[in-house]
Amino acid sequence: MNDLSPATTQGAAPDPRPFVELRADPEGHRLLLAVRRFDEPFLLTASLSHGVGSSLLAVDRGKAGKVKAAVFRRIAGRVVLVQRNKHHLATGDAAAVRAGEESFATSVLWSAPALSERDGVVVVDATGLALLDLHGVAEQLAAPEQGGYVVDPAASFPLPDEAHQGARGVRLPALLTFRGSSPGAAVRAVVPAPGAVSVVQHVHLVPLPDPPLPVRRYHPGSGGYGIGHDDHGAGTAAGRRVRFQPRFRLEPLDPDAPSGPVRQPIVFSVDPAVPEPVRSAVVAGGNWWREAFERAGFTDAFRVEVAAEGTDDNDLAVNSVRWVHRDGRGWSHGQGLTDPRTGEILSGRVRLGSQRVEQITALAEALHAPYGQPDERERLAAVERLVLGRMRQLAAHEIGHALGFMHNFASTHHPRPSVMDYPHPRVTVTPDGRVDSSEAYGEGLGPWDHFLVAHAYGRFPDRAGGRKDGRAGGRADGRADGRNDGPPDGRDDVLAEEAALAGLRRAAAEQGLVYVTDEDAHAPDAAHADAVLWITPVADPFAALDEALAVRRAALAGFSRAVLPPGRQTGELEERAVLLQLYHRSQLAAVGRLIGGTRYAYGLAGEEGGGAVPVAGDVQRRALESLSELLRPEHLALPAPVLDALTPPAVRYGRSTEYFDTRAGRVFDPFSAVEATAALVTQELLDPARLNRLGWQHAADPAVPGPGEVLDSLLDTVWRDGTPAPDGLVAGAAVRETAGWVVLRSAVGAVRSDLLHGVVRTRLTAALRRLAEELGRADGPAEREASATLTAFLTGDGSTRLGPPPRVPPGAPI
Question: Which end of the chain is more exposed for a tag (fewer CB within 10 A), N or C?
Answer without folding.
Answer: N
